[in-house]
From TrEMBL:
PANTHER family in the record: CYCLOPROPANE-FATTY-ACYL-PHOSPHOLIPID SYNTHASE (PTHR43667:SF1)
CDD domains: AdoMet_MTases (cd02440)
Protein name (record): Class I SAM-dependent methyltransferase
Listed Gene3D superfamilies: Vaccinia Virus protein VP39
Length: 410
């Protein structure tokens, strides 16, 4: 029974390309018109067929993790991208669409990330092992979208270009005090201190990241220009000339967007400037994948531009510049995914089993496909408390954007 149900779903869903499915009985069938992308997958157990009918997204993730869904690693992206592209056609079953709408409506309840829950969420993802992240990130351990001023840039150069792009938008002067909300392993803070003469305070809820950031500051001779705290951003009380936050807003949760931007407004000095770098949808609000929420980023939420804009408006901040970075995170994730695959022997040496490897591989693939196949990008929100805290034209950026930033990246 369940196979016939899933076949009906696939016939309705795949309107572009072709998906070849090998069923548990060994029979293979094709779905879709054939023109366009092609992919193949094997379902190895009858239980996964029923699970895919009941809860497609969770079953797809868990089924791949435990081997009930099999797809060669080098073909996994094609399979996931084909599904994501066709899902955009709006031909999913009505009950699936209704569940998505209900989860969007309930996001204010599901994502109440108080300080205790926020710390638990951070530990789940960031406190697993710095050694794992070192295997696929750039040398500076930038775990956010790079900025490819030239498509041929290396990952290291593109991450340097990202940091320089952000620094220019912050209009830094030597001696300025900067708050780095969600400072990660300290790369941004160290760059702003070393290259721009800022005094940076970084806050994080990850004990691993805190220890690494402090060690890196000592090794770089920047301990006198940086301070790293294990602290929830909501508890920061100091005043700062600048605020920067890269890849942290996604962890705030929908109910706390207003709280976040109000805090940014409160810690900024009257002439202060903030730059918020975050993943976002240029489409109506969408629910977080239940698989991503359970296994990868508990409590996470990718906001739509409409949601972010509303929170900024209510905070009293000026939105002095809004840039949408398109076509940058997909290539970033592709670099990470290829590095992860190349480092698998070392991943296994660290003690990670095949289920974890399949989980992490799928996470990187799903994210890359989301940026390539859906209306998902990266927002750069430049904010200030006063209208003239930022120049009234973009000339100050254009002077750096191509030749200078490319040179700085290399």
């Amino acid at each position: 029974m369940w196979q016939s149900v899933l076949e009906r779903i696939l016939k309705r869903l795949i309107v572009e390309g072709r998906l070849r499915v090998t069923w548990p009985d060994g029979m293979s069938r094709d779905y879709g018109p054939g023109a366009g992308p092609k992919a193949e997958v094997t379902l190895t157990d009858d239980s996964i067929v029923a699970a895919l009918c009941r809860n497609p997204v969770m079953a797809l993730g868990e089924g791949y993790m435990d081997g009930r869904i099999d797809c060669p690693a080098h073909k996994l992206y094609e399979f996931v991208a084909l599904l994501v592209r066709n899902q955009q056609s709006g031909r999913m079953p009505s009950w699936f669409t209704a569940m998505d709408r209900m989860r969007v409506a309930l996001r204010g309840i599901e994502q109440r990330n108080n300080p205790l829950r926020s710390q638990s969420n951070v530990k789940h993802h960031y406190d697993i092992s710095d050694d794992l992240y070192r295997l696929f990130l750039d040398q500076d351990m930038q775990y956010s979208c790079a900025y490819f001023t030239d498509p041929g840039l290396s990952l290291e150069a593109a991450q340097k270009a990202k940091k320089n792009h952000i620094a220019h938008k912050l209009l830094l002067k030597p001696g300025m005090r900067v708050l780095d909300i969600g400072c990660g392993w300290g790369g941004m803070a160290l760059t702003l201190a070393r290259d721009y003469g800022a005094h940076v305070t970084g806050v994080t809820l990850s004990e691993n990241q805190l220890a690494t950031a402090k060690r890196r500051a000592e090794e770089a001779g920047l301990a006198d220009k940086t301070e790293f705290r294990l602290l929830d951003y909501r508890k920061v009380e100091d005043a700062f000339d600048r605020v920067v936050s890269v890849g942290m807003l996604e962890h705030v949760g929908f109910p706390h967007l207003q709280e976040y931007f109000t805090k940014v407004q409160k810690v900024l000095k009257p002439d202060g400037v903030a730059l918020i770098h975050t993943i976002g949808h240029t489409a109506p609000p969408a629910p977080t994948s239940p698989w991503i929420d359970k296994y990868i980023f508990p409590g996470g939420y990718v906001p739509s531009l409409s949601e972010v804009s509303a929170a900024v408006e209510r905070s009293g901040l000026w939105a002095t510049d809004v840039e949408i970075l398109r076509g940058h995170y997909g290539p970033t994730l592709n670099h990470w995914r290829r590095r992860f695959e190349a480092a698998l022997p070392k991943v296994r040496e660290l003690g990670y089993d095949e289920r974890f490897i399949r989980m992490w591989r799928l996470y990187l693939v799903v994210c890359e496909a989301a940026f390539e196949e859906t209306r998902q990008g990266v927002f750069h929100l430049q904010l200030s408390r006063k209208q003239y805290a930022v120049p009234t034209t973009r000339d100050y950026l254009h002077g750096h954007s191509e030749q200078e930033m490319l040179h700085a990246a290399q």
